[in-house]
Structures
1.
Amino acid sequence: MDFSLTSELRELQDRTQSFIRDTIIPYERDPRRTAHGPDDALRHELIAHARAAGLLSPHVSRDMGGLDLTHLGRAVVFEAAGYSMLGPVAMNCAAPDEGNMHLMERIATPEQKERWLRHLAAGETRSCFCMTEPHPGAGADPSLLMTTAVKSGDEFIINGRKWLITGAEGAAFAIIMARTVVDGQDVGATMFLCDLPMPGFRCVRSLDTLDSSFTGGHGEIVLEDLRVPATDVLGSIGEGFRNAQVRLVPARLTHCMRWLGAARRAHDIALEHSRRRHAFGSPIISHEGVGFMLADNAIDMHTAQLAIRHAAWLLDQGERADLESSMTKVYVSEAVWRIVDRCVQVLGGLGITRDTEVERIFRDVRAFRIYDGPSEVHRWSIARKLGRVRT
Amino acid sequence: MDFSLTSELRELQDRTQSFIRDTIIPYERDPRRTAHGPDDALRHELIAHARAAGLLSPHVSRDMGGLDLTHLGRAVVFEAAGYSMLGPVAMNCAAPDEGNMHLMERIATPEQKERWLRHLAAGETRSCFCMTEPHPGAGADPSLLMTTAVKSGDEFIINGRKWLITGAEGAAFAIIMARTVVDGQDVGATMFLCDLPMPGFRCVRSLDTLDSSFTGGHGEIVLEDLRVPATDVLGSIGEGFRNAQVRLVPARLTHCMRWLGAARRAHDIALEHSRRRHAFGSPIISHEGVGFMLADNAIDMHTAQLAIRHAAWLLDQGERADLESSMTKVYVSEAVWRIVDRCVQVLGGLGITRDTEVERIFRDVRAFRIYDGPSEVHRWSIARKLGRVRT
Amino acid sequence: MDFSLTSELRELQDRTQSFIRDTIIPYERDPRRTAHGPDDALRHELIAHARAAGLLSPHVSRDMGGLDLTHLGRAVVFEAAGYSMLGPVAMNCAAPDEGNMHLMERIATPEQKERWLRHLAAGETRSCFCMTEPHPGAGADPSLLMTTAVKSGDEFIINGRKWLITGAEGAAFAIIMARTVVDGQDVGATMFLCDLPMPGFRCVRSLDTLDSSFTGGHGEIVLEDLRVPATDVLGSIGEGFRNAQVRLVPARLTHCMRWLGAARRAHDIALEHSRRRHAFGSPIISHEGVGFMLADNAIDMHTAQLAIRHAAWLLDQGERADLESSMTKVYVSEAVWRIVDRCVQVLGGLGITRDTEVERIFRDVRAFRIYDGPSEVHRWSIARKLGRVRT
Amino acid sequence: MDFSLTSELRELQDRTQSFIRDTIIPYERDPRRTAHGPDDALRHELIAHARAAGLLSPHVSRDMGGLDLTHLGRAVVFEAAGYSMLGPVAMNCAAPDEGNMHLMERIATPEQKERWLRHLAAGETRSCFCMTEPHPGAGADPSLLMTTAVKSGDEFIINGRKWLITGAEGAAFAIIMARTVVDGQDVGATMFLCDLPMPGFRCVRSLDTLDSSFTGGHGEIVLEDLRVPATDVLGSIGEGFRNAQVRLVPARLTHCMRWLGAARRAHDIALEHSRRRHAFGSPIISHEGVGFMLADNAIDMHTAQLAIRHAAWLLDQGERADLESSMTKVYVSEAVWRIVDRCVQVLGGLGITRDTEVERIFRDVRAFRIYDGPSEVHRWSIARKLGRVRT
């Protein structure tokens, strides 16, 4: 075993940390941050900085303009990027684009890559992933998928409703999951690529949400006789769920990486406050009620980082790491939540104001215990694996 | 022992519940709800409804237009009011006005009551309580109070800075806590009444905060040579902290009451969702991962209600109930938080959208573990009492 | 509402507290305490003290020699008795005898009462309740009951295996639950009374267990052609489960009462230690890491007591209190556990030695989260009720 | 980074696992297990097995008969050994001997090694470490050390009282920590080696404790004019606390390693039960209330293992790892506790009987949150480090 990072990776980590601290954090007070992430102008300005710093899209291949990072490399760099909520946007490694790039590099055709991925990887465009549906459709249980794509000649005609679609507003294209019907037969779920805007794809509203850092917010989409040519199927027909796994496991981990960075930021803000702020005769960190919270933060960050890096390393070894990524997702999403909640508490009244970045992190991170599988679904899935496998 | 409510109180509880359900909840979608509570027009409209229903200011004396409720009566009625975040506003029993009325009824002079309290109790005006100061001033540790009131002839000249002052924007008067200097001597803290607007009292900004339901938001105030006549001292000179206790203990409990109502609302929304929403073949409430959360909510609401009613009853017996109100504040603020957090989790993606009232309750209630004494300060105070008293 | 106790009940509480403190606690160092509770000689000596003090069997009717306490009265007195692990034994209100007396007072025939209950209530004899079976029989799920009672003439012939039968060793009689077969038909579960010792009822071993305070320990029983006359059916044939409810709900609560007393004892020991023991320059209670644990104990004891008294009061009003007793059982069993665990931690190394009574309480109370329905079964049952009832 | 084990280490892990499973676990039902660990005969029999298997004292140097394992190697092998509570005894790597060997290898003189260490490493003898004192002496706060060693000619005369001294009964020698006085001057704490039995060293009692697996139990020692030649100082005079650090940090980790193995054992027993035991129509693992507990176990074991291996690796790099070993000690001791507590709950009634090994593990592991620094002391120490270091 070896817990050290290569010198290349350490150098990249340092460089990312400096970039975030010196170039990105100053933007956090920029009024162009909206309730739905940075606006277009700010986004492009941030991306230009990352491009200049050689830090754009670090997860994609060099051919596509990235740094071709391994999963472990992402664990290190995305955590550093996440130290500012604007970092992943700047470095073009925020959700859902990052996961979409990962997916497309693996299963898109060369033509699809040139047409969609290249611009996405360059930070010129944004994308969205249209999977979740409003009640009673697909959510934590994807088998409830109700959107249909019916083959009609060389096209598919898609109808349905999607919901909580991150980044839909302003996306240049969508990946749409639909139950597919060919010759009157349900042949399973399929993913489709679709340029936006497009008749038949209507973003009927942008949801008001607790979080506020996802570019483009979360939209509700009506799909009405949306026509997609058969050539724009992503992967194979009927293989939608299987292919989604290619995206799902790593996407789950990259969320963990970025959020761990955000939690570390919150912790540093709370820690700094706890050293400066006096009450009852001494800095509040010297009161155990406060100090213990910060100690627990340190423990949570430490164990979360180990779990993330381990799971990333497993993926790099070619393992599926289903169980480990589920365990890591549950553990990190809950650890990050505990950390940020403690930071609010340490900051006291200041913690619930927007005067520090903690308030925003707090609002944004709550959803992580829900998306990419709620804790309950992962625990159920872990238990099912335990029930089956003989130890 | 008798855990039953009198028939009068049950009738009032029923009436309040109907009023909230039929008259107030429909306003929750009113666009006049802002990030800083209902706007003035909406507030007055809501108050008119409560007045018509005979439910205005139930905690003040009949002479002042209220229902003269005991503390136990408040426990029942405020919980019912809190079932909508607009309920306490409508019934004029929201913080900080409710606590200010309670305080003034007990320690204001007859002239002060006519001049300030009567209009406040009638819901015509709003007020604010200026105690908390920005770092390094008074917060969880009130002894750090830095604002000064210097006696000069028949006046006091007040200078300082206040922060997180709920309802300051738009208040018709303020109660201001200041360290008092008479003849060059620090004679302790004093509370002052002061009409608003007033030169020398400047609301320099309205803070952006996690919560969004307090009317007038939370302001930052600069006090610059604010002149207050000696007749406008509330209570006695130098008795500010002692008199603040008159407000503090019951105010702590009324927060518990209202928030318990809000938690119950969140629970009912989550429960209803859990019965309707299906996943993996059955309503999600039938999955233990969800059902157990709702069961824990039921337990938390039950024990929280018992603790609140017990502490209120103690106050009605003339007890100071210092220990019990501290224990209740810690317990209820944390129980309510657990409940609402679980509701978000049960609702899944829906829980982080503003499509249900749960998102707003979630944001608003977080601060309750901080204000009126953070959990840590109460635990410290409880431990100190345990350390002293021989069992 | 009225949270005060009647003066009669307060007097009885005082008297019980003095009795426990002055008469019973000194016996805690008696070598006749075994790994399976006090031995026979000690038990009779303790009972003689309670009889002399007029505190024997306070829950049974005056006709049977008790104090005819209401459920609320039991809540107060049993908590005081539980302050020593020997208290309920002395006062003849320990499990399982206390629950058996309660059951028999309600459903036994006058003849059965004279024959069995009178001696039991007088503390002359002990009894056991034979319900639980070893895997794969009845446990948390009683429907798995495998023991059978087959009608044969005027007798029932019982065969089966029982397990974890508290107090079996040395009991003068047993109540046995068995699936009943009459004329080849399964007519449901029935309870039978049976003198001990008796051929066909063999205690094959006494289990080694974590706990050590139940008189007679926990036995494993083989029932082999045990013959019980039809006159010794307790209640009616086929009504075993229904009648068991008569015992179950109150028995669940009386466990809560006694264990709360034990938790209070552990807390007082830890509190006293925390005032005397110095570390890092001051009494350890003044370190928040310790003080907060004691504060949380105070909160847990307070809320647990309220929940117990409320549920007891409901029973006194003639309510079934199914939901409330389930909530109370889960809450109290877990609160008591937290309390005692914290006490061990506060005591440090001392906490894991038998030098204080805390070690024994710790071992004994763990099982309470399991018996009378594990927390998981109660949460499931509460959720099911929530799922059904429209709010 | 590389999370894989070398093939040598994997082979050793496999070999240890087989040894424990095939050779040691069958001894768990041996009646020679007492309330104070295995008796002498059993201990020697177990050690003979480990010697034959080439697995004795794997942590000591090859010169002393061991396998010269790195800290990481210990992490792997000790966890495997801990899978049976008898494993570390058999392999001569149980506390306190293992830590004493580690310490002596580093700071003892060659003569001391031959005289004491060689026999200890061979499993022929046992030892004890006399540091902790009864109230008001040294415990969590070592500065309270009251035992004195006064220089008198070529000897030290030691007086004091020690308490909770693991393995004292039957030890062949002791390491004694005492405040040292030379020429009337307190020159700091010193460690002394002392053959046993010895006049002046009296084991006045063996404590009854919650745990039952430490060989020789925990003794209380009176030191009365105990004479130790100056040549038997271990390390240097006045360097006792500094030298104790050499023992402390690794000893803290080896406890984590062994207990993680024990927790894994408990988990496997509970898991197996949860697959076999049916209730409410299916194996109990399929009920989320049970399945989630087992899933949480899996997460806790995974993160605990990562933290242990990381800290061990740091030591292997020559780091002091103060912070990481504190974080790991807190995390693992609490994670292991959660795991074993859940196992008891999953097992239900069976969990509180000695019919499975879980009951014993449960009792034994509770103390780990206390010894080697209670969680509270470690959290305080972590917070102090956070407060100092600028991030």
2.
Amino acid sequence: MNIYAVIMAGGVGSRFWPRSKKKTPKQLLKIFGENSMIRDTVNRLKGIIQPENIYIITNKLQMSGVLTQLHELPVENIIEEPFGRNTAACIGLASILIRKKDPDAVTLILPADHIIKGEKEFHDTLLSAAKFADESEAIVTIGIPPTRPETGYGYIQIDENPVSDSVYKVLTFAEKPNYQTAVRFVDSGDFFWNSGMFIQKIDVILAEMKEYMPDLHEGLMTISEAIGNPDYQDVLTNVYGRLKKISIDYGIMEHSQKVYLIKGNFDWSDVGSWEAVYELSIKDENGNSKVGNVYLDTAFDSYVYSPDRLTALIGVDNLIVINDEDALLICRRDKAQDVKKVVDYLQINKLSEYL
Amino acid sequence: MNIYAVIMAGGVGSRFWPRSKKKTPKQLLKIFGENSMIRDTVNRLKGIIQPENIYIITNKLQMSGVLTQLHELPVENIIEEPFGRNTAACIGLASILIRKKDPDAVTLILPADHIIKGEKEFHDTLLSAAKFADESEAIVTIGIPPTRPETGYGYIQIDENPVSDSVYKVLTFAEKPNYQTAVRFVDSGDFFWNSGMFIQKIDVILAEMKEYMPDLHEGLMTISEAIGNPDYQDVLTNVYGRLKKISIDYGIMEHSQKVYLIKGNFDWSDVGSWEAVYELSIKDENGNSKVGNVYLDTAFDSYVYSPDRLTALIGVDNLIVINDEDALLICRRDKAQDVKKVVDYLQINKLSEYL
């Protein structure tokens, strides 16, 4: 069994504005410690997947950042999407490219910008999932046992009778719930957080695409035939540009009968906002987490990032303060989801120097 | 009667950090509208005092800023204190220098960094005060009828029987009171805000200095004798350096029997903090006042200054945000007095690049 990783690194992570920008998206930032999130994502695969089997799928703007940060990966493993077409197309493109090299590949699809703690449990889960996916022709999602009624995550409901060790048949996918529903999900015991990670043989996912997303499949086959030909880039650009923007969850997972869930018994966070960064950071005795040049006076429960200029806080609490080179964000922690609205505003007003 | 103005412009205004710095103190900043506070202070004298009778007393660091901003004043009217020695020495030095030119001068002493609205009332008050000071050999302070129990101002108590139109004998000077005392002051009707402005003949203030601050007077006479001599700067530096740092209120006003008060029937603020700036600024329908490049989302009752970089506020209220070139202040409005503590911290830690 040959396991490959496909790390999806095409998003911007606009909730991380002003640090996240088109050229420096969330996954390329050093949000925790010394490494960027994508660097940590690749490091985390050490011992189970060889560098030559690790693929990154990204876009033109982020290409040079990815190449610089992940210099040990073969250059041809860094796939450039000509346009963003959501996750179904992205995974399809990676699948046909890896298939050329290894038609029997088992692929692990991973987001580039999540935090995982507990490397051994993570590895064990991946290897079990890969084994089951390979033997049972299954798509195996990794579900995280929920520890709180989080409304920022999607949930996956399972049939409670395991089909194998820690592996369950998936009944339904549920979008981000409201708080009441989230409480019900967590209390039920048969709902798990959707980690966005899943694993399957290439021919399995392509077969499901043929079944449930025939237009996508047809496009992918056209592109696949052109691989290695001089007109490959033209074909890719033409065909990819006409693909619909559909997520893998919506396009495949919610319909396929081959979807299973394996419990991921490790700490996981999708680090969806500055609030999540605050929660995951080490705090001082006043509940503050600070990075850089920061003066605090009667300040509490706040996250302050100020790598260059001096930032002074007096008499405030529960703030996110991101004092970046050309823009400053000051946001109440419980409004961290609304950071995206600033990015929308900047886009609408064509203030691209801040994007 | 020849009226002269002496504008005291030696302070830093550390409550206005990070905008106020040693070289760009409060009075040289454009805090409201197009003009700096000192520019407005000089403009306000138009029509009652000629430019050649307006003196500025400042220090080496602020000299070039003052000269640039007040280019219509004769260069010799910009007096440079060799060291800061508080207001008694400062006024004494200005007095002996003006005495050389005009021994009969009536001098109006003015802070450089206050806000006044109601120019005609201001002029009428000054002219009445000057007339009384000249005819009665008096020191006439300008007292503002209090409109609220402000704890940030000093108060002056009068004898309620006027000695002349709107002029009263002063009974006591009171330091900044606590809230309860301030309420009592305001309710009493015989307490006024101490505007820091006062007017008197030069020989009167020098005589009172001789009486109540003989060491200062002796030093001033030594300096005065050296005016015009080649060793003037040396004498000034030597003598001034040994003078005690005493305020004119503490040194003279609280002791002299010649102190009177004239009611100033104009709007006045010493603009003592960013909170005062907020209070004096025009606000939008959400109670926000913003200068520069600012995005607001569910933000209320805040003052935001961000002339260059973009500042985005989400879900916050009652904040002062000063996003200056090399430093950022975020302060709850009711903690605006504590901005001084940042400056103390920077001084103690020798972080002079921010001072």
3.
Amino acid sequence: MTPIETAIKMTLDRWYGSVASLDKVLNVLTDDQLLKETAPGKNRGIYLLGHLVAVHDDMLTLLDLGEKQHPELTEPFIKMADKVTTELPSVAELRDYWSGQRALHREKFDQFTADQWFEKHTAVSADDFAKEPHRNKLNIIISRTSHLQYHTGQIALLK
Amino acid sequence: MTPIETAIKMTLDRWYGSVASLDKVLNVLTDDQLLKETAPGKNRGIYLLGHLVAVHDDMLTLLDLGEKQHPELTEPFIKMADKVTTELPSVAELRDYWSGQRALHREKFDQFTADQWFEKHTAVSADDFAKEPHRNKLNIIISRTSHLQYHTGQIALLK
């Protein structure tokens, strides 16, 4: 394994480890618990779960891996704050989306070569990327892992 | 910049970005707010801040950068759960430790070469490292960034 392959493995291991951490939290929480606020007046578990699914869905386009699977989640879980709309999928549906997404991501990521991880992501121009080569696909995984951990810490408070 | 230097930059940028995120949260919270529980019955802000300082202090030894600056924090903030002891530093002291530590880490990390980041950390044996080269110093930064984000999400609920 070359150092660059080691660096990619470290990043992906942390991503999968973070996904597994949230799985573990979700497995001990009931749907009713996920309908509660993480702290008084703050986002509910259902909102944070939907938010994570929506943000991770958006990764597919950023990584140039095709269309979003659940474009209908962008409005209620990214553009809107929690408790603005009551028209949300059920917790059970969001759990299904989360599981399906996890499997799809792994399947897609397994096909990436080392070089592909260092290609530009779709939200940066070729000119900007030439000056800022860190704005690559692997960096999307790094930033989304941070985001996932942040909200997992909050959802874990419902236990 | 070589791909490996880019990978190191991405990891360190995310670490510094996560440290800056917690700084931002701490700057809007009063000491009194940090004495509150993040959610009913859960860890208080002061405990999570002390826990982060203690865990990051331990990074110095893991990265072979010298002795801990605050060994007295291990007992109350890592070994003990919150609210077990009342003998804790004040929030003001912990804020000072956090700021000092942030500066010290940056000074030390700035001196690392790319090769040094891929050296084994101190908690893995040479034999194990030969088989598992991902157990290196850069990976300590990756895992501690995840841990920091997890608890920052919780402390942010005090806002």
4.
Amino acid sequence: MQSPKIEQFIQLLSKLPGLGPRQAARLSYHLLDEKKEYREMLAQTIISLTQVKRCAECFQAHEQKTALCLLCASPNRDRSRIMVVEKDMDFSNIERAGVYDGLYYILGGVISPLRPKSQEKLRLRELYNRLSKANGVKEVILATSATPEGDHTARYIEQISEPFVKKNLKITRLGRGLSTGSELEYSDAETFKSAYLNRK
Amino acid sequence: MQSPKIEQFIQLLSKLPGLGPRQAARLSYHLLDEKKEYREMLAQTIISLTQVKRCAECFQAHEQKTALCLLCASPNRDRSRIMVVEKDMDFSNIERAGVYDGLYYILGGVISPLRPKSQEKLRLRELYNRLSKANGVKEVILATSATPEGDHTARYIEQISEPFVKKNLKITRLGRGLSTGSELEYSDAETFKSAYLNRK
Amino acid sequence: MQSPKIEQFIQLLSKLPGLGPRQAARLSYHLLDEKKEYREMLAQTIISLTQVKRCAECFQAHEQKTALCLLCASPNRDRSRIMVVEKDMDFSNIERAGVYDGLYYILGGVISPLRPKSQEKLRLRELYNRLSKANGVKEVILATSATPEGDHTARYIEQISEPFVKKNLKITRLGRGLSTGSELEYSDAETFKSAYLNRK
Amino acid sequence: MQSPKIEQFIQLLSKLPGLGPRQAARLSYHLLDEKKEYREMLAQTIISLTQVKRCAECFQAHEQKTALCLLCASPNRDRSRIMVVEKDMDFSNIERAGVYDGLYYILGGVISPLRPKSQEKLRLRELYNRLSKANGVKEVILATSATPEGDHTARYIEQISEPFVKKNLKITRLGRGLSTGSELEYSDAETFKSAYLNRK
């Protein structure tokens, strides 16, 4: 390697999630041969991310001058429901479905005993605080993944929410069943049981 | 290839579903080096499949002297429900879940316009006949896969069942939702919608 | 499972290499719904494999009345060369290339310390015996795979062949280099080194 | 999407090779939650790539004040050989093998009739010019991949090099054969033929 700058760039990129050293090298050489203007625009966009903040209530990324994001401030959303999702991209995907019209809460990940570092970013205490102050919220929908970690996270939230449940907050979970593409030959017992009981 | 018998065997095996020519060759040479007794047992078991019949009502494989299989003849099954499944292996997998205690109907595949040959084995007319005579059956559960072909097949069965629906037969489908392993980031709109509406 | 014969068949098939229980079940039900004539032909072909023997010299499968296979008995093959291959299918693939016109020796596998059972079928002692009696053989080409196990097997054969090497037998190995599809970005050092030294 | 800056960043990243929209989104949100210092370092490294240049002779990335890179200027490399490689990463991988001690030429890709855009970056004319002036170069080794496009590119370079071949330049290609991991059962005829002819 004759260029320390390329080497440094490959090392920086390799630390990003999902980028191995090979793809990092490929991206580095690609950017080296790109126009200077493209690199400058890319760098500026990265710098400008500092101006993006997270909503004080739901933790979505937004650029409003207010503490709240547009969705949390909107009079058109049903303020009696909060859907707790794991990640920013879950939120984007759910909004695309166009079915849900309540508020959100972006947890920032799942409880994962095997990767304790990833838990540091979880906003569990902030969720508790939000529920403490949540006037008019009647239902919290736990939209975690149907995986062991997602289930574990949902159970934990159910536990810390008990004081609010006693005050009539309803905690629900997304329904289980056949998802698009499921074949009966490969379905596990729990999926079949839910699909059977939810038949219509 | 110096052995016409090996060659013939490879060709016979290559026609079986899921066996390419390479795996067929591997199996052939493996059997060639197996003990004579193993080959004879294998051949005899294949011959003896002729004594296996399919149940006159549900089309499961069985070896009873009667026309009906043990499950269809059992007094312990709920005779007011029939679950229509695509394949023998769907039936085995559902029984393993231990949730359903009614009767079954093994269709023999799905309606697949792109593979008309596979439809020849479908027992749709026989299903119609069974429903015509089905005294005491109150519900038919269509347990087809959550795939375009599975949905298409379910809709077709709903259509041909209309005369029975008018006589109070209930036709249901397995519930949709998150199946085990589903992540919200990758869920399609229909799966999310069902999961949301079926929340609890 | 209501048919013990189907169950027995699935178990027999599951033991074959490369067939898991699911594919075994799929094949079993497929054969159940096949015509009786097909099953009988399949069973008969399996039985008839007993008449296939392995050549006394090269261990290929053949059906001649003689001990030798047609290739070993042919006057058109170069009798001064023997190519040692791992498996029957390696032999078929090499013959298809149409480059080599000498004799063969099918070893029956590789030396694999991790799977000692698979070594029982190796014809190493028989190879030694053949080389002892091999009048006029000038070269033995070790055509084992370029894998750790293939290399290990080749080295072992080189060791047991030392007495014959002293009597002027030449032992060679297939050349290393870029194989079709190789990309330089992913090539290991040994492959590159051979490719570089064998350049032309 | 409530943050136009995030949206812009995802779009910029999606254009990079090997990054789909989903991975681009994942990276964007990851960077949003990273420390400001990390983002600034990343941006600065991207900007600083403008100071990296490509060697006037071999087109490697370097940061010398001279036109030539360290390798091209080194007295320790054999200046009578030039190895033509497709990509920067091929060069890195070959150097790691520690076998070759001559000079290099980084072509910048392969001739790919199906992706004409990718050919714009190919330094074929520059290669012709370098060979015109190459005093003392006795051999050009075409180290393109053993793929149809790599072969096509090597043949094209052989054609444009004919004037130099007449003046005693030798053009070679890397040797073909079994590469690490190759199994005889799956080897194509050309690979086997080369491996057989290069045996030793």
